[in-house]
Amino acid sequence: MSTQPRWLYGHRGACAERPENTLPSFEHAIAVGADVIETDAHMTRDGHIVIAHDAEGTRAGGDARLIRELSLAQVQEWDAGWSYIGQDGGRPYAAQGIGVPRLAEVLERLPQARFNIDIKQRTPDMTAAIVSLLREHGAEERVTLASFHGAVIRAVRALGYRGLTALAGDEV
Predict the structure, then answer these.
(1) What tens digit of pLDDT does each residue of 73-107 get?
(2) Contact criterion met (CB below 8 Å) for 42 and 52
(3) Which positions are catalytic?
(4) Is the pLDDT assigned to residue 5 strictly greater than 70?
(5) How high is the pLDDT of residue 6?
(6) What's the 3-state SS for 108-169?
(7) Which residues are CB-contacts of 81 (< 8 A; sequence separation ≥ 6)?
C-alpha cells in the first residue's frame, strides 16, 4: 500500500452534476469531497482572468466569439448554466443566473480551496496577469499552474511563481 498522499480532483468542478467551470460546480465538487478543483483560464480583452475551458463561448454560453476579443462585461452576459445538459437532454441550469466567473471571484468565494489551473490562452500572453492576480490574493501556495504549452509554463516560472507548476507536454 502506498503512503503517498492522494487527492481527488474535481474536473472543471463537478461537471457531471453542475455547469462546468462555474461557482456552483466548484462549490458542489468541494461539498462532495474534491480536494482540488481542476479548471481553465482565459483573459478578456480588458485584462480580466475568467474561468472557461474553451477559447470561445459556444459551449460556455452559446456565443462563438473569442474570450480574448471580448470585454469582461460581454463575457459575463453569457448564460453559463446553459452549458449543462442533463441526462434527459434538458438544460436545467439555463436562465438561472449562472455566469462565467472571474478568477478573482472564485478565489474570494472559496478561500480554502486548492486549484489546478490550466492556462489555456497563449495570445495575448496572460502569464504576468494570472501570476499577479494569484499573488494579490495570497493564493500561490494553493494554486498549481499548468499549461500544455511549455513556453507558457516556463514564463510562469520565470516570473518567480512560488506555487507549484505542472510539467508541460514538451517537458514530460
Answers:
(1) 999 999 999 999 999 999 999 999 999 999 999 99
(2) yes
(3) 11, 53
(4) no
(5) 82
(6) HHCCCCEEEEEECCCCCCCHHHHHHHHHHCCCHHHEEEECCCHHHHHHHHHCCCCCCECCCH
(7) 19, 22, 91, 93, 94, 95, 96, 97, 98
